[in-house]
Amino acid sequence: MKRTLALPGALALLATPSAWGTGHGTSTLIDLSTSVYGYLALLIFLLGYMFVVLEEHLALRKSKPVIVAAGLIWILVGLAYRQHGDPHTAGIELRRYILDYAELFLFLLAAMTFVNMMEERRVFVALRTWLVSREYSLRTIYWVTGGLTFIISPIADNLSTALLMGAVVLAVGDHNYRFISVGCINVVVAANAGGAFSPFGDITTLMVWQKGAVQFVEFFELVLPALVNWLVPALLMSLTVERSQPVGERRHQRMKKGGVTIMLLFLATILLAVMVHSLLHLPPVLGMMTGLGVLKIYGYYLSYHDPVFREQGHITHHHAENTTSHSMLRGDHTGVIRRFDIFKVVERASWDTLMFFYGVVLCVGGLATLGYLSNLSVLLYGSLGVDLANAIIGLLSSLVDNIPIMFAVLAMDPGMSLDQWLLATLAVGTGGSLLSIGSAAGVALMGQAQGTYTFMSHLKWSWAILLGYIASLFCHLWLSGF
């Protein structure tokens, strides 16, 4: 269950192809999948992931069990290799996967900070206000929210976009539960489909880009299949949407100073990340962190020029924690000036998500070092064929988190062509739409629209989403000359 993607959109894995697969550098891996250590490691992984699945029932953050599982798995890996007279390979492999995660962590942190900064500047609230204030019918709002979700999610990530448009659906739907349910399903499908044709739309797409399997511009070959993936169920569901006028609340909220500048900085940072990767063959995280540095400098500017408000005799602001060197403000007697602080924005990053990715990367890496992924690659891609295997893996992503699935495929490195990598990316990115628990967007909207958009209300339209999924895969195969 993709309960955790806060990205938007997301995240970097090691860009050097030689660091992927079952053979890293000069270390030689041993197939230990049938050993006692292998069975214990697999059991630990399954138990850890069971806790992730039951996160909302147990109120236990998903990062906690996978971090513990990662540590135990690698201890077993070290013991297994040491028993076979190789005390060094486990350490070499672990350091490589930690490097994978380091790039993932920094990329995610930069992307999350930009998105949180735009949220703090009320960029998303201003967009929502504009949409709600239009005199559109419910059916028009249905198509506008779905279309904007499809367009915005490749840039702002599918989860953030789904939350934004879900808020619009709730605002205009008021007590029209049928519209809210169908509108949320439409947003979830559009968010996952839109995120499938951009490295910044979903974690899995960025992982594929970072690995070097698909270049940045090549992802746009998935635009038409992704559009089909959304439009097929959207057209079928739209038949149940009324043409009446919405009755939701219409509060007018404006964007804060600097919102447009931050959006432009985010676009420039994305461009820089793409350029350093495609032209200089440097990891994209370099561009993202450089852009984050520029954003921090702009945050310093905002800290001196952002409006300061006085409420009930105190100087207050959205980030109101810093006591500055200006101990007094003329005309005020609080003795404290509270200003905008960029580090407060950084603190709002989803740290549970970042720690969860640490556990996922190391757990899957440990299983790969024990030989499980190479065996799985032979089972799926050797016996079923690449296209069918990719389609099945996409369906599995509606039940199992797509991040470990895509990481496993990348670690298998089954020798796929560009079209086959694109098919895998499309399948894994959109397969989670089949169930409400199959994607971060679905899980987030279930929490946002509690009691209205539910697992069962989504399941009623799973047949239509499945038709869109199948149609999108055939569309890609047709475009690639299958």
Automatic annotation (TrEMBL):
Signal peptide boundaries: 1-21
Membrane topology type: Multi-pass membrane protein
Keyword Iron: no
Transmembrane parts of this sequence: 37-54, 66-84, 96-115, 219-239, 260-280, 286-304, 354-373, 379-400, 421-441, 461-479
Cellular localisation: Membrane
Main location as per UniProt: membrane
Domain Citrate transporter-like: 68-429
Key words, A-Z: Antiport, Ion transport, Membrane, Signal, Sodium, Sodium transport, Transmembrane, Transmembrane helix, Transport
Family: Belongs to the NhaD Na(+)/H(+) (TC 2.A.62) antiporter family.
Name used for this protein in its record: Sodium:proton antiporter NhaD
Name of encoding gene: nhaD
